[in-house]
Amino acid sequence: MTVAENLTQIQKNIKQACDKAGRNPEDITIIGVTKYVTIERALEAVQSGIRHVGENRLEGLLEKHQNIGEQAIWHFIGTLQSRKVKDVIHMIDYIHSLDRKSLAKEINKRTDKPVDCFVQVNVSGEESKHGLQPENIETFIDMLRNYPNIRVVGLMTMAPHLDDENVLRDIFRSLHKLKSNIQDKRWTHAPCQYLSMGMSNDYQTAIEEGATHIRIGSSLVGPYEEQG
Ligand SMILES: *Cc1c(COP(=O)(O)O)cnc(C)c1O
User: Fold this and answer.
1) Does residue 156 carry a pLDDT above 50?
2) If you measure from the C-alpha of residue 185 to the centroid of ligand 1, how many angstroms do you get, rounded to a whole number?
3) Looking at residues 181-209, what average pLDDT do you find?
4) Apex CA 153: angle with CA 107 and CA 82, to 5°?
5) Residues ≥6 apart with Cβ < 8 Å to 29
6) What is the reported pLDDT for 141?
7) Rounded (5°) CA angle 202-207-209
8) 23 beta partners
9) Ligand 1, CB within 6 Å, residue ranges
10) What function does this protein fulfil (predicted)?
């Protein structure tokens, strides 16, 4: 399948989910996750109309950014080690994985203009997942006002791989509620208007529950060989 063919199918599914939820497809941003694919395939995605690109590792980001550059808006979606911040900060437009004070401090220090960040939340409570516990979110985001170069534009979560749609739905719904609570505070450093949730296998449910940013890898740029 070409990326364009995959994208057409995804857009149909987005439309369907939006119709169900009374939402406008224009309010959904597709982030094309290119972490498993070649530069050529990533370029194909951009040429097919993907404007937002996501990478989860420094190496992948460097490689893709070098070849695609300003044609895309760049999202860093993976765990970010503090010592690597200085290498990526000038390339990325959004960070989806802000989950600790030390990282906020480092980001704040390495840039001179505000960076749009999503705070990562571990809604499902799985030990293997990164992110803050839901009960710590408000205190954490409140504290971020001490770092003028951090702007909290939303919350992000990675749902577990589950077939039970109701459990997934509960996870997405919880994140939506958390996000609304923060948004209602009208903190200037944390407008928190976005929800980054939903991947290839669950983005329709995520959209029904309010996702504004869906992060799509395999359904968009696959199929590819599983790595590692
Ligand atoms: C890989 C990845 C995705 C995309 O996953 P697919 O299931 O291939 O769509 C989304 N978000 C994060 C954080 C990822 O690491």
Assistant:
1) yes
2) 30
3) 98
4) 20
5) 52, 212, 213, 214
6) 98
7) 100
8) none
9) 33, 35, 56, 77-78, 158, 199-201, 215-218
10) Pyridoxal 5'-phosphate (PLP)-binding protein, which is involved in PLP homeostasis.
Say if residues 117 and 97 touch (Cβ distance below 8 Å): no
Mean pLDDT of 70-96: 96
Q: Which two tokens stand for residue 18?
A: 């939006």
**CA–CA gap between residue 149 and residue 140 (Å, rounded):** 15
Give pLDDT tens digits for 166-180: 999 999 999 999 999
Q: Domains in the chain, ordered, with CATH?
A: 3-221 (3.20.20.10)
Atom of ligand 1 nearest to the CA of 216: 9
- Reference 104, options 190, 185, 32; nearest CA is 190
**pLDDT of 84-94, one tens digit each?**
999 999 999 99
Residue type, 73: I
Mean pLDDT for the chain overall: 95
